[in-house]
Amino acid sequence: MARSASSEFLRRKAEPKSSPIEIWDVHLGSVTAVDSNTLFFAVTNRNIRFYSFVDGSPRIFQALGISRSPIARHIDSKIDSVQISLENVDRTFSQYFLDIDLRGKRIVIRKIFADLVAKAAETDGDNFVVMFDGVLDTPSLNQSRLQAQMRNNFFSSLAFNVPRRTYQGLCNWKFGNSGDCAQHRTQQQLFDPRNGTIDVVVDQTHFKDSARTEGSGDYWAPGIIKMLAGTAGNIGLRRRIVQSTAASGDGVGPSGDIFLEANFPYVVVPGDSYQIQRDCGHTLDKDCRDRFLNNSEFGGFFTIPENLIRRS
Question: What domains lie within the chain, and their CATH numbers?
């Protein structure tokens, strides 16, 4: 006897949030512009409105039962090829297939989310990830089934990497890259390096510079120090800063301490000059929120539960 799905199951199934949708831009005419031969498909059960990949104009993506294989990649994660298939092709499409040579036609596959469709269609349309940008190769029509392979092309599809984010509490972004810390590029406190001269060498991982009066304690930690002049073997080399203090400037308080993660290969002496720059420790509280006021762009998964350790 067949069982009906529960009302809770049906409610969750119909909920739009976090529902991934693939949309396809199929360029059967011009491969670099949208024209009358450009088709827009959505791999879902309803038509949706979203932006064109090429001209940024809103379009209607028609629901279509098209499928694909997993996207093949090179060893360095660069996109290579993908197999596509379209079932239940009728006579109209068969004639269309005969009239148009599909080889070399461009197809762009993107992934969006159902709960962002309306927002993206009304604002900037940037809520998508390009999964593939390639051209059709060796298409074939067998009874009511269209099959084809798509390969990378001159549209630089090898520049698109299949997303492979690590699910961790720390931020996944590369510090300062476009899309995460980009809005801070105009902030002098973040991307403007400062030069200085070492006054005192306490040991080879602890220097002092009375001119380092910026901010408060640990303003430069984490950070990067690069030697500019002085001991020849160290010039151009970098080390990570793990702790710092701001100099008081009165000769009584702190004198601008810089603590390094590891020493330089050759002995650092007073008078050696350096360049210093802030960096990010990839944490939400100390770095993204408190240091750079950028927590809205945090790229980690801070809701992942930490390991609970029980000690007896």
Answer: 13-159 (no CATH), 184-279 (2.40.10)
Look at residue 102 in the predicted model and tell me its pLDDT: 74
Return the pLDDT at 32. 82
* Pair type for strands 72-73 and 58-63: unpaired
Q: Which two tokens stand for residue 261?
A: 């993660």
Tokens standing for residue 158: 């090898």
For 283, phi then psi, to 5°, come to -105, 155
- Number of C-beta neighbours around residue 230 at 10 A: 19
pLDDT of residue 249: 67
- CA end-to-end span of the chain: 53
* Mean pLDDT of successive 10-residue stretches along the chain, which has 312 residues: 56 61 86 86 86 84 80 59 67 62 80 67 62 76 64 50 62 70 57 87 93 83 92 92 84 79 93 91 84 78 60 52
Alpha-carbon span 229 to 186, nearest angstrom = 28
Give all strands (DSSP E) within 64-177, no chain letters. Answer: 66-68, 72-73, 79-86, 106-113, 129-142, 145-152
Q: Which string of DSSP letters, residue by residue, matches 12-59?
A: HHH--TT-EEEEEEEESS-SSS--TTEEEEESSSS-EEEE-TTT--EE
Is the pTM above the cut of 0.85?
no
Residue 76 Cα distances to 79, 110, 182, angstroms: 9, 21, 26
Number of H helices, E strands in the chain: 4, 17
Cα torsion for 21, 26, 32, 37, to the nearest 10°?
Answer: -130
